[in-house]
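Entry 14. Ran structure prediction on the chain below.
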Amino acid sequence: MLRSLFTSATGLSAQQFSLDVVANNLANVGTTGFKRSRAEFQDLIYQITREPGGQTGTNSSLPTGAQVGLGVSIGTTSPIHRQGTFQTTGKETDLAIQGNGFFRVQLPDGTTGYTRAGAFSIDGTGRLVTPEGFALQPEIIIPPNREGVNVSADGQVLVKVPGQANPQQVGTVQLSNFVNPAGLRALGGNLFSATQSSGQAIDANPGQQGMGSLLPNTLESSNVDIVEEMVKMIILQRAYDTNSKVIQTADEMLSTTNGIKR
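Output, structure tokens:
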């Protein structure tokens, strides 16, 4: 009975962790480019009182044995890099990726960050930057006397300037992708960094080497499905209640055992 108490306690901890993941998904339902995560678990070590296949006689053996698990362990959280829906904004520097890939930006410490959030703006020096001021890489400088900015599906940044009949190309937006995007480290602020698990970044222009294409004047919304998360939350609540009930039942059985002496 003591074993059932501790086993159910691991279940409570696991369901709480899973609920934390669901809560984070729901909290970011309106976050541009956000990718939902799911919690994954694994069962703990087993106590084996009778070994499967153990000999019970000269010509006989146990078909199954006796194995009792000791609960559940929090495994990993896996990001789901499924395409989010698109929202047309009309802002000339907003970009969305249709397909694979990440925008590449320079972080304050000089390292490279990766993001699906294409809510770019133009800073005081003409650079395309994130809302936090991190410059898009490679840098693209927009002339101050521009009359309009247009980004093509293959990443060409075209600027209409006075006195010129044809738009002027001032740069190309490049994308990066990874062998295992789920292995990226989440930094917050819609940013990721590469890890050994994700592999090295593969850089290419949109539409090349498996990269997606760009949608100008558009943002990618979060891929969180509110209905799916709410259903999962109900299941977690029921699982939490059930584990609590097991603890209560084990406690009542212990109480009955203690009362035998009286």
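The two ends are 20 Å apart (CA to CA). Will compare against last week's run tomorrow.
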